[in-house]
């Protein structure tokens, strides 16, 4: 909890004590706000991170280095919150979902690229999905075989800015007489709608190899309805390694930067 700066009135019977030097006060406040850091995948993070209030920002108690660390600390906390939930695709407890969405909002308020469609080089290239509020639950999960013999793998996305196209690839592992891998590939085109929004149009989809198509043939429309990207997407945060978007259906997507050729060697 942050150090309290407002103290209760001192009884008149007590003798007022001299205030400590201002430098000691600053050190005490800084120490309570920023405990010893721990290492993580995004560098150092403060184990006691909390959002910086307007009053603190204006008071001058926090230096520029501390302010610059804030988004990195939020990203570290976000990736820790995402551990063990399989990208949220099979549901997330309410408390965990609220925690994730709170951290997403903090990042969005610190977006270093507030007009992303004016800087599409930040968006171009390869991405891997790490969280989505799209879920496959109940009868949909059963019909698609995702409870028993089909495992959902990684979600990759490649964005070609020059062509105005995106390719989404969803990986699957199928257990049966023989174990084999496959993918659903969805190709779409996009047009800039505003400084932060793009309109997306579905173009085509394919499933490979044929064995996987045979597995999904009966429920292919259901599969496509879940992953079809058509609509609009608001890019609410993007930096060199992380991107967050919100679509017209109220979904949140969190993706991290990856190599573009992740699916080139499929068999």
Automatic annotation (TrEMBL):
InterPro entries: PAP, PAP/fibrillin_dom. The keyword Cell division does not apply. Keywords: Plastid, Transit peptide. GO terms for biological process: plastoquinone biosynthetic process. Transmembrane segments: none annotated. GO terms for cellular component: chloroplast. Residues 73-255 form the Plastid lipid-associated protein/fibrillin conserved domain. It holds the Pfam family PAP_fibrillin. The keyword Amino-acid biosynthesis does not apply. Its main location: plastid. Coiled coil: none annotated. It comes from the Eukaryota. It is found in: Plastid. This is Plastid-lipid-associated protein. It comes from Actinidia chinensis var. chinensis. The lineage of its organism: Eukaryota, Viridiplantae, Streptophyta, Embryophyta, Tracheophyta.
């Amino acid at each position: 909890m942050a150090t309290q700066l407002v103290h209760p009135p001192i009884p008149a019977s007590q003798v007022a004590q001299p205030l400590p030097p201002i430098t000691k006060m600053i050190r005490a406040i800084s120490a309570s706000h920023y405990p010893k850091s721990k290492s993580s995948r995004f560098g150092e993070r403060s184990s006691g991170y909390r959002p910086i209030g307007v009053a603190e920002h204006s008071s001058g108690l926090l230096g520029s280095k501390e302010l610059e660390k804030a988004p990195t600390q939020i990203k570290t906390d976000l990736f820790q919150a995402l551990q063990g939930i399989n990208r949220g695709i099979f549901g997330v407890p309410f408390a965990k979902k609220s925690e994730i969405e709170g951290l997403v909002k903090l990042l969005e308020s610190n977006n270093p690229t507030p007009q992303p469609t004016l800087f599409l080089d930040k968006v171009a290239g390869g991405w891997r999905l790490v969280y989505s509020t799209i879920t496959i639950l109940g009868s949909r999960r059963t019909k698609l075989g995702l409870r028993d013999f089909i495992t959902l793998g990684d979600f990759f996305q490649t964005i070609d800015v020059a062509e105005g196209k995106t390719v989404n690839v969803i990986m699957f592992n199928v257990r049966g007489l023989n174990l084999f891998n496959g993918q659903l590939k969805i190709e779409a085109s996009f047009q800039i709608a505003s400084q932060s929004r793009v309109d997306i149009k579905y173009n085509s989809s394919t499933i490979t190899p044929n064995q996987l198509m045979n597995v999904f043939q009966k429920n292919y429309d259901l599969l496509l309805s879940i992953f079809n990207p058509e609509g609009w997407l608001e890019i609410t945060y993007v930096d060199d390694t992380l991107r967050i978007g919100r679509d017209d259906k109220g979904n949140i997507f969190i993706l991290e930067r990856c190599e573009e050729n992740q699916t080139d060697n499929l068999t």
